[in-house]
Amino acid sequence: ASFATGEQHTAAIDENGVLYIWGSNHSGRLGDGTTAGRTAPYQNATLLALGKKAVSAVPGMNCTLVLLEDGTLYGFGSNSKGQLGVEGSQFTLPVEVLTNVKAAFTNGEFSFAIKNDGTIWATGSNKRGQLGTGDTESLTAWTQVKAPENVKTFALGEEFSLALTEDGTVWAAGSNKRGQLGLGVDDASISTWTKVADGAEQIYAGVETAGMLKEDGTLWLWGGNKYGQVGDGTTENRSAPVQVLADVQSADIGDAHAAALKKDGSIWVWGYNKYFQLCDGSNADSLSPRQVVTH
To answer: What pTM value is reported for the model?
Structure first.
């Protein structure tokens, strides 16, 4: 079973491999044949009829990717940037977009896939070089692209990408106007994959903020910090990784806020809080991690 949230819609897969999806249905991103939103989980009939289990679902900004157990990747929603990699501008029902896929990733405007043979494929917007192709030409069809060797996962921000390889190396490409590539500079976009750090276990990306969890349990963030989402006690953008917490088990970054689960079971939050997303009893931003749950 798994659970994933997009900007305005949510997807879940139960223990039987059945996809449930709900929320805003702008551009048909719920894949139910309409553009009407749903306030309760919907069992996707089209995918259910295929008789194959879903293994992962990725809700992006305006689209959704769903990977089935046989490696077939389906997509629905907006394709205005080529993010689904097929012909057509919008799909309100699931369409097959790629095969032999091991893992898929999208932010809603550009997408990556890792195939079973380890090759990396990409499609969608590339105006800041976020596909790592060495140029800024966008793609409207799935195309095999150069990438670091042995990539195991991606984290996609608004116009930048992070890649994590099997040996724990973090790589970045795309927009760097807030320092979100973590390279110590914040004045240019970079269209080729560039090394950021070693020793990472997990990577994360918000709109303009990025992070990594290192093998020693330390959490590091960098990039846009307007609302304190880097968690260093300031609102200054950070162009190089800053250690925020230690003894962390897992973490994630939202649009402009972040949360971490520590090894002792406590939950810590920080950043933008206008809509009470920090669950701390207020709507004031937090510039540094604040504990909200104890074990």
So the answer is: 0.96
